[in-house]
């Protein structure tokens, strides 16, 4: 399954972002919340953004592949997802406002492509069959 590659990349990304938060919490000796430290606030925002989008996007990607989408479509959607998360990370981490619109637009494009792809490749005859 091609989508398993992107599941692994998504898991690695989530793990890296989580470790960033843990490292900063240890550095600033903060147990809960952000302690008012802007660097920790940013790391939490980057991580929470990934936790919001990555799981549902990966579920859509896996189902898209299970529905029989072509391999290039799986790669396209997976690459867009990973690039979008990296843009979001870069935008928030380095406060680069130029990437703000690109990151959110790419997230919506990625999700919409996978939703439309799943609707297109869905086995409609099995869905409405009584047998």
Automatic annotation (TrEMBL):
UniProt cross-references to InterPro entries, sorted A to Z: MAPEG-like_dom_sf (IPR023352), Membr-assoc_MAPEG (IPR001129)
Keyword Transcription appears in the UniProt entry: no
Domain of life the protein comes from: Bacteria
Keywords assigned: Membrane, Transmembrane, Transmembrane helix
Membrane spanning residue stretches: 6-24, 44-66, 72-90, 102-121
Subcellular location: Membrane
One Pfam family, short name: MAPEG
GO cellular component terms listed in the entry, alphabetical order: membrane
Cross-referenced SUPFAM superfamilies: MAPEG domain-like (SSF161084)
Family matches, as PANTHER family: GLUTATHIONE S-TRANSFERASE-RELATED, PTHR35814
Name assigned to this protein: Inner membrane protein
Source species: Candidatus Fukatsuia symbiotica
């Amino acid at each position: 399954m091609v989508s398993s590659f992107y599941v692994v990349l998504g898991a690695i990304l989530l793990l890296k972002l989580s470790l960033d938060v843990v490292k900063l919490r240890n550095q600033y000796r903060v147990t809960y919340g952000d302690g008012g430290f802007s660097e920790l606030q940013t790391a939490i925002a980057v991580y929470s953004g990934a936790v919001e989008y990555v799981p549902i996007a990966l579920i859509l990607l896996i189902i898209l592949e299970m529905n029989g989408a072509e391999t290039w479509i799986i790669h396209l959607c997976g690459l867009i997802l990973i690039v979008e998360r990296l843009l979001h990370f870069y935008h928030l981490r380095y406060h680069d406002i130029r990437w703000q619109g690109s990151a959110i637009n790419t997230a919506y494009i990625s999700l919409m492509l996978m939703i439309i792809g799943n609707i297109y490749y869905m086995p409609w005859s099995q869905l409405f069959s009584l047998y």
